[in-house]
Amino acid sequence: MKLSSIAPLAIALTATAQASYINYTTVTGYFLQDEASTDASTFDYTTTNFGLINRTYPSDNPDNDNNLLTQWERFHHHITTLNHLSPPTISYKVLFLGRHGEGYHNAAESYYGTPAWNCYYSLLTGNSTTTWSDADLTPSGIQQAQIAHSFWSHQIASQRIHTPDSYFVSPLLRALRTANITFSDLPLQPSSSSPFTPVIKEFFRESVTLHTCDHRHNATYIHSLFPEWTFEKGFREEDGMWDGVRAESNGAQDVRSKVALDEVFAGDDDDDDGVGMFVSVTSHSGEIASLLRVIGHREFGLRTGAVLPVLVRGEIVGDALEPTGTGTRWETSAHCTAPPVTSVSSGCVCASSAVPVTTPLVTFAG
User: What is the mean pLDDT of the chain?
Assistant: First the structure.
């Protein structure tokens, strides 16, 4: 008998040794966000029941009064049934992909303009009024996380939604803050950690660019802010991925996103009963875009603070496949050494005295 709490895919993966490969697909027909007709730029998860489509499921029991069950209760039962009926090599999980609320780096990019931000200001640690290295949330970002908290609270009370069984969060400060505001003090599932204690996972971080907002604090500092939270096994004290010079390509990011997703599906971050069927990942726009590519979901941009649920099917298929992104994995990019002359949609123009370089500019702007 296949029980959702035993993580059968992890058992099957162990049985087939290191040569196995998990193939991911998005199972469509359950969320509005899966449909091409849904406009990501105007979609609001708080007014659409997280986008869950009002429909019947093959697992609905006609002998019971389904009117007594909410859409989310019937959906949870359906996912449980899918897992129960599938072979050990297949597993279904619902990923709640949450983007962090607005950070000071987002506000700075809006202020300076994207071209100037990318070629100069993003390489600084901040300006005379604020810091955006490993950016914290702005007041607006805090409010966005509070909206998510209120909506989860409403869904728990009105829809009796099955809250995530496991929680993962990027190690960058804006994601840590968002997760804490969103999920603390909610009546979570008994199967999840209570109080809220997510796993901090390195590979769920934002795309690693030259920008200082992508340079995380060390583990000691993170622990001082959230002492009860758990670091994944092998989490390093210092950030070994960011150097202020190179940026990872989309292919390279997709490789590490798949590694993180493989660990979630295989239950590597839990020593007991696996991660469960409903999984929360609080992350970033670039990383969520990467995860969507890995699972074959259509492109769906999230506004700061938004949440995207996706039903994912993971299947162990044959021998290990050659990973993508093994070509040019990291890239350098020339940038101005002084504020640019112009910042327009067509690009950034450096001052004649500011010869572009490829070395870090980790200093404060005046």
Answer: 88
